[in-house]
Amino acid sequence: MFTGIINEVGQVTQKNHSELSINVSTIIDNLEIGDSISINGTCLTITTIQGSTLTVDLSPETLKRTNLGKLTHSSMVNVERPLSFGDKVGGHIVQGHVDTTGTVSSINKTGEFHVFTILIPENLSRYVVTKGFIALDGISLTVTNHSASSFTVAVIPYTFENTILKTRLPGDKVNLEVDMIAKYVESAVFWHQNMEI
């Protein structure tokens, strides 16, 4: 489990079809082989640690469902260590199970805020609500508006400067994880309706 509060921005040092290596600095001392780690919102398992570089495996499902397959040498990524008992939950509960990717449609400056409009598949839009949570590349954000095909988030200056959002451009793919409560509610309603006699 994660909270969507990014610990640091790491840099890809090596990537092939099944492995990804990332250089990190501030959190490396608290990590061990076998730990979970969130990379751009994707929960992965650390397989090796060498100095300040950690390596994770990339499964075919991960490459299919996320934007990690598009990473190259020197790409910057959002990194978050897993939630521990007793930690503050500053964002929302994020599983690291990416639902799909969305596409950055536009980025507009409104005062000090950067307003991102993200295009999403229509089958995911039913889980997105105004003032609800969404994880975008692992970042816990609040939906400011939404439609059947898109939603917007207003990103505060600190989050913009301390995550990979400052590198995003229109057309870029971003990892999306909707709030899991919406999916649980939908599942409960479905089973309740279908189990009635």
Outline:
With 197 residues, the chain is an alpha+beta fold.
Features:
6-stranded antiparallel barrel; 6-stranded antiparallel β-barrel; 197 residues; 4 helices
Helix content: 10-25%
Distance between the termini: 37 Å
> What is the typical, i.e. mean, pLDDT?
92
Helical stretch tally: 4
Q: What does the model show?
A:
By secondary structure, the chain is α+β, with helices and mostly antiparallel strands. The chain has four helices and twelve strands, in the order E-E-E-E-E-H-E-E-E-H-E-E-E-H-E-H. It has helices spanning 60-65, 122-125, 157-161, 180-195; strands at 8-15, 19-23, 36-39, 42-50, 53-57, 76-80, 100-110, 113-119, 133-136, 139-146, 150-155, 173-178. A hairpin with a 2-residue loop joins strand 4 and strand 5. The termini are far apart. The relative contact order is 0.19. The model has no long low-confidence stretch (mean pLDDT 92).
Spell out the blueprint of helices and strands.
Elements: E1 8-15, E2 19-23, E3 36-39, E4 42-50, E5 53-57, H1 60-65, E6 76-80, E7 100-110, E8 113-119, H2 122-125, E9 133-136, E10 139-146, E11 150-155, H3 157-161, E12 173-178, H4 180-195
